[in-house]
């Protein structure tokens, strides 16, 4: 078998990071990364959190069929949709050679070899062990480190617990050892990754909790920025806010998905908190952490959502003054508890509510960005701006994007101090003051 591969990643950060592991495993087995047109094997990492993600994937998949017919490449499909569909995916797209589930990717090299002999489906969920699985980082300066995988929350709309399996926490020494390897390899930022990082080792008696891990990672790597996603409002508490405040290199950025501002809908979603509890946490974040950036996820049109529930969401969004919001139209997912409820908000109403919500969230994002103009920020330079090669693209501690004119010197992967001079709807513009190294 020839040995060029390409990974096509759809969906969330979990998939992006799984892709880094897949590259690591394949390269240690002698494969080389190539462009799509030069690949002998194309590996998709799929998402099924909403129906639109599924449709997008099938579109991309069928566009590869001519390449398959012409060159006989191997097509492999992994990630959440592969886990959910299993053999059905092979029936629907018989030109696929390999379907592999969310806990199978460490075996990717062996599975591709099997698939070369005949169509293969591997979707067992008997646990995932990440220690000693190589990683090829997509970005030299940023290391994603999984601290928990799977999810036990069973929010009633969400398919993730079904396709990612039960929640399991990695031992702290394993996480610290991986972080240490990544920092030695040049990482300047560590992102601790989990569906609900705050429940890290929740079930183990006497084990260290998320805050302890955060403090440990923070003090072990003092010159490195530390972030974490995703937090769950039920489990995110004062102790995390204190840990961020006390640990200088933990960034003041929290992604805390609200989902809805109505207590009735939050209960139907099985989220485990009320709007009052969420608001207390958001207010405490704002008052304890100067300049904190708070982002969120919101779903509109959940079954039974009435105008008054939606208005409660709008009101919460205003009260929390979210700096950024990812907004979704509810989409029933087969097998979830909410899929048994009547999907009774009409598509027109869902879209109308989405527009009204976007009107508010966009204004708040613009206000948040505007409030930084005139100030100074320390940023981590990520590389050339996607839009304007004459600019660098960087991120603040609060995860806001800043563009600033490039100088001769290559400062990608370095920290720098910039003056914020202007802002657009989604990002800041600045001027370099000093390269910090
Ligand atoms: N574990 C993370 C990410 C979950 S998926 C968390 O709890 O935040 C990312 C977002 O997709 C969710 O926060 C939710 O807002 C949205 N989402 C999940 N299922 C959905 C569905 N069936 N319809 C619409 N949006 C959904
Ligand atoms: Fe889905 Fe809820 Fe788990 Fe997030 S916490 S992955 S929304 S079940």
Care to describe what's here?
This protein has 437 residues and is α/β, with parallel strands linked by helices. The protein folds into three domains: 119 residues, 3-Layer(aba) Sandwich (Rossmann fold); 229 residues, Alpha-Beta Horseshoe (pyruvate-formate lyase- activating enzyme), CATH 3.80.30; 60 residues, Nucleic acid-binding proteins (OB fold (Dihydrolipoamide Acetyltransferase, E2P)). Strands 2-1-3-4-5-6 form a six-stranded parallel sheet, with helices on both faces. A five-stranded mixed β-barrel has the order 15-16-17-19-18. A hairpin with a 4-residue loop joins strand 18 and strand 19. Helix 13 runs parallel beside helix 14. The longest helix has 24 residues. It starts with a strand and ends with a strand. The model has no long low-confidence stretch (mean pLDDT 95). S-adenosyl-L-homocysteine binds next to strand 13.
Radius of gyration: 22 Å
Ligand roster: S-adenosyl-L-homocysteine, iron/sulfur cluster
- What general outline do the C-alpha atoms trace? globular
Give the number of domains.
3
Low-confidence stretches: none
Q: What structural class should be given to the helix and strand makeup?
A: alpha/beta
CATH architecture of the largest domain: Alpha-Beta Horseshoe
User: Total number of helical segments?
Assistant: 14
Q: What is the spatial order of strands in the main beta sheet?
A: 2-1-3-4-5-6
Give the full name of the CATH homologous superfamily of the largest domain: tm_1862 like domain
Strand content: 15-25%
Distance between the termini: 44 Å
Residue-averaged pLDDT, rounded? 95
Give me the count of strands: 19
